[in-house]
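Fill in residues.
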């Protein structure tokens, strides 16, 4: 068993001041003046805070639908990097919504699959960009009925959803077609959990 040292280590960085740089309905962006215990300082450290967090800094969910041992990924164009990639279904938890309900809603909205919350396989957490964003993502997989390619409607930059075998996904990763950190961690955790099952 790995010991958790996080609770026994005092905070290493102190927030000296904070200025709002930008806000929208989902995020607040700050320029923080911070200092560590050795006296090092950064006067405009970029910090992004989601407007809504639940249970230990969870701001979002990522979920992969699985059908006949094939994993569904969505083709998405990401404006900041100007590239297409294959990604898990992802989204923010809304106010007054628990994490499982958010995963079920995102699965329905982005891929058209209806599942019950207790059908979700909980695969833990990831911190997509812990150096900048105060947010963790809860990871899930869920068995679904359909495994054919399908069109994903209603989301900016979203293309089709395709179900891939593990070998095909490994090839997509090797070719740089899957770069999203949350998707990569989710795939790893899902495959690791499947391998560890009795």
């Amino acid at each position: 068993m790995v010991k958790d040292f996080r609770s026994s280590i005092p905070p290493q960085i102190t927030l000296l001041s904070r200025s709002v740089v930008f806000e929208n309905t989902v995020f607040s962006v700050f320029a923080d003046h911070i200092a560590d215990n050795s006296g090092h300082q950064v006067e405009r450290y970029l910090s992004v805070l989601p407007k809504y967090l639940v249970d230990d800094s969870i701001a979002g969910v990522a979920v992969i639908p699985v059908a006949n041992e094939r994993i569904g990924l969505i083709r998405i164009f990401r404006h900041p990097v100007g590239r297409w990639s294959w990604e898990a279904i992802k989204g923010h938890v809304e106010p007054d919504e628990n994490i499982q309900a958010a995963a079920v809603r995102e699965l329905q909205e982005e891929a058209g699959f209806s599942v019950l919350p207790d059908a979700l396989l909980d695969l833990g957490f990831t911190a997509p960009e812990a150096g900048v964003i105060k947010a963790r993502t809860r990871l899930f997989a869920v068995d679904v009925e359909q495994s054919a390619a399908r069109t994903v409607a209603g989301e900016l930059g979203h293309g089709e959803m395709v179900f891939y075998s593990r070998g095909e996904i490994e090839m997509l990763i090797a070719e740089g077609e899957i770069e999203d950190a949350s998707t990569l961690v989710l795939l790893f955790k899902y495959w690791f959990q499947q391998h560890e099952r009795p």
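Residues 6-50 form one domain.
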